[in-house]
Design brief:
This protein has two domains: 5-129, Alpha-Beta Plaits (2-Layer Sandwich), CATH 3.30.70.1730; 131-175. It contains six helices and five strands, in the order αβαβαβαββαα. It has helices at 5-21, 35-47, 57-63, 91-102, 123-127, 132-175; strands spanning 24-29, 50-54, 81-85, 107-113, 116-119. A five-stranded antiparallel β-sheet has the order 2-3-1-4-5, with helices on both faces. Strand 4 (107-113) and strand 5 (116-119) form a beta hairpin. The chain is elongated, with a radius of gyration of 27 Å.
Length: 176
């Protein structure tokens, strides 16, 4: 189906805007996946604030011009899905990795983070990144640990004094 010039410009602008805001992108080949499965995948992506779009490669190459994802141009071959993670850099990787496990025909081709193109073998590294909430809780635990240790140390001083006084009392009672 032919797309008019104005529609192509709109697609390029939309994808360019998504790429400009994104933290990472995952590129996948969707050949052989049913439309019901693709609808479920789109739904998952929307829930996780992942912008996913099927785009012609020529339009995708134009759309990523001027963004940190220019490095993906060589990976844009064949039918392509672009999944841009907006809030959590690992969100698209987690969703597409899980989807690829369930659908044999779905194939992840490449990914990019911070202007660097990575191979499909790096998907686990990106998918295992903690979410924002997980990272904040880890940071809070690291910050809280020294304070907790200090409180325990301060609490041990009166405890030790109490033990010494009790030991002296027991010694005097035994001596008497």
């Amino acid at each position: 189906m032919a797309i008019g010039l104005e529609d192509k410009k709109a697609i390029v602008a939309e994808v360019n805007e998504a790429a400009g805001k994104a933290l990472s992108v995952v590129i996948a080949d969707y050949r052989g996946v049913t439309s019901a499965d693709m609808t479920a995948l789109r739904s998952q992506c929307r829930e996780q604030q992942v912008y996913m779009r099927v785009v012609r490669n020529t339009l995708a190459k134009r759309a990523v011009d001027g963004t940190e994802f220019e490095c993906i141009k060589d990976a844009l071959v064949g039918p392509t899905i672009l999944a841009f993670s907006n809030e959590d850099p690992g969100a698209a990787a987690r969703i597409l990795k899980d989807f690829a496990k369930e659908n044999d025909k779905f194939e992840i081709k490449a990914l990019a983070v911070g202007g660097e193109l990575m191979g499909v073998e790096q998907i686990d590294r990106l998918a295992k990144l903690p979410t924002r909430d997980q990272a904040l809780s880890m940071l809070a635990n690291v910050i809280q640990a020294p304070i907790t240790k200090l409180a325990r140390t301060f609490n041990e001083i009166p405890t030790k004094v109490t033990r010494v006084v009790a030991a002296v009392r027991d010694q005097k009672q035994d001596a008497a």
